[in-house]
Write a structure and sequence with these properties.
This protein is α+β, with helices and mostly antiparallel strands and 173 residues long. The protein is built from four helices and nine strands, in the order βββαβαβαββββα. The strands form two sheets. The chain has a seven-stranded mixed sheet with strand order 2-1-5-4-3-8-9, with helices on one face. A two-stranded antiparallel sheet has the order 6-7.
Length: 173
């Protein structure tokens, strides 16, 4: 079982490869909040539906003060093919490594066939990161069917920010 990131702890600083070139750093202090989504990859139809919904809500997330970054373990060519097909306008990254997956505490799966993927890949993870680079929300799943509703999450984050609510889940047993 992966080790879950602790509430209000520093989010791991990850340097990610951006589709189209360059890198994006997630987890470091910055001006905005970050919505960070780990998706399974090109083979996952549920991921496409989820990211299409995110595209529909993108302006609302940005209005609430969020930058959006998504990543998969796919090679750049596969991630670029999805970007070309769906036209997502948020930052899309590729080649998430096993070490980065471990740092995030996401579940990792072995491909069922070469048609699915050609290497182990991350199962879904959704993270809200504070401008200070701390973990506010951690939602990880061991399969494609369980993810937070993006509109509900946005509503909750707007409330959290407006009312200066702390990260929850801070008690260790």
């Amino acid at each position: 079982m992966p080790e879950t990131l602790a509430a209000n702890s520093p989010f791991p600083t990850l340097v990610l490869n951006r589709v189209g070139g360059g890198t994006i750093t997630v987890g470091a202090a910055k001006d905005n909040w970050t919505l960070f989504v780990v998706y399974r990859g090109k083979h996952c139809g549920r991921c496409k539906n989820y990211l299409n919904k995110l595209e529909e809500l993108k302006s609302s997330w940005e209005k609430a003060g969020f930058d959006i970054v998504v990543v998969s373990a796919d090679a750049e060519a596969k991630a670029q093919a999805d970007l070309d097909e769906f036209g997502w306008s948020f930052d899309t990254c590729h080649s998430l490594s096993l070490l980065q997956m471990r740092a995030l505490g996401v579940f990792v799966s072995t491909p069922l066939s070469p048609d699915e993927a050609d290497a182990p890949f991350a199962e879904p993870g959704v993270f809200c990161i504070t401008p200070e680079g701390k973990t506010q929300i951690v939602a990880i799943s061991n399969g494609p069917a369980a993810r937070p509703d993006l509109a509900e999450l946005l509503d909750g984050m707007i409330f959290t920010i407006k009312n200066d609510r702390p990260a929850r889940g801070d008690v260790s047993l």
